[in-house]
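ingest -> validate -> predict -> emit
validate: passed (alphabet ok, no gaps, 67 aa)
predict: started
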Amino acid sequence: MIWGAKEAIFKIRNEKGISFKDHIAVDEFDLDQTQTTASLHFDGLHKEFNVYFEEVEDFTLVYALEK
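emit:
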């Protein structure tokens, strides 16, 4: 789910040079939670996001919305 959160944020910004490891941070959460927060710090840019998790059949849908 962490990877999915980072992927959702990357797709929102989609700028060359953004590193999942170095530029996108997902706040701690329990697996039974349905949301968390995350941030992107890249090239002087700082953005905050709400990240949501939903179970859909056998898959987990992860999406992010900028605060």
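The mean pLDDT is 95.
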